Amino acid sequence: MAVSFASVLLEPLRVLPFVCHVWGPSGTCKTVALMVAMSIWGNPRMGGLVKTMNMTKNAIMRNAAFLCSLPFAGDELQTIKDKWSGNFDQLIYQITEGVDRGRAKQHGGVEETRSWKNSFLFTGEEPITKTNSNAGSKNRVIEIALDGPLMEDGHYVSSVVQDNYGFAGKMFVEYIQQTETEKLLNRYRELFEKLCRLDTTDKQAMAMACILLADELAVSLFFSAERPLAVEDVWQYMQRSKEVDVAEQAYQAVLNWAAMNPVRFENPKDDDSPNRGEVWGKIEESSNTVDEVLVLNRDVLIRFLNQSGYDYTAISRQWANKDYLIRNSQGKMVHQTKVYGIKSSYVKLRLPQDDDRTDGDGFMSIDFEQETFPFE
Known about the structure:
376 residues, alpha/beta, Rossmann fold, 2 domains, five-stranded parallel beta sheet, five-stranded antiparallel beta sheet, 13% strand
């Protein structure tokens, strides 16, 4: 509901469109929750404001343009999985740009370009982004995984919202029109700055700050007995900087891959070595520090990155900037060196050290400030 209310705040706050994707197994009342969120604005029945995602790309863009500032609700995203080759990055980019592609008319000229400023609510049985998704697509998505049913009696809730709808949206818009834009902007900036102090990105903070502000306004109007959502309630659903960073993802993927294949980094000439196949490199201590270094055959590394959907040229430069990759004496990415007596082209990557400051999930512990809600 907060995401649904937030849709009409995007234009006055100058926030980019974003996606909220709720996913989980069948029977968790995802569709009913979507209907509740859309009943704010109008009839939430399937085929009404709640659309099935079994539609063409052009239909999605036309619907978004027609809705303009109202949220777009799409149910069961997996129904178009095959159309997008199992990767929704392109769809995310196109809908969050807020502008449809230009089209030429059959007899000359160009059609008017459609645009929109709204949030997108999707449901599905699996995440909308993958581990190797581009940083841009992860940045534009708030993903929520469900562990159980959202409500006890989904059928009853569905019946109620299909008989009573459209009242809250009108009151919400009227309230926004009566409230000074500067007051909304100031509160949005406060929330944005608080979220930016966490380990996240600007785009994630923009979307979530808009959601939190919308919830504060909705609580002040309709749910005065409730407490508005606060930063500590939602930060777990935001992407961390490392999760969005493609270079970081690729680095972790290489480390995991190497850890699963330790035998490929042993000397096959040793009598007690179990390696009787390919040799991918070795693990050695750095000459300048006590850090361990993964010496990896360049062609083997390129093959793995290509299979995982990463570009070696772009990734290697980012690794060098992060000091993960050790350049040679000429400043190049590749070392011409010997591994177990065979000279070839190798890439040297620093292996990470244990960090006791992080918690069990690998993220820094966070102390949240006491929140105040100016719209109470």
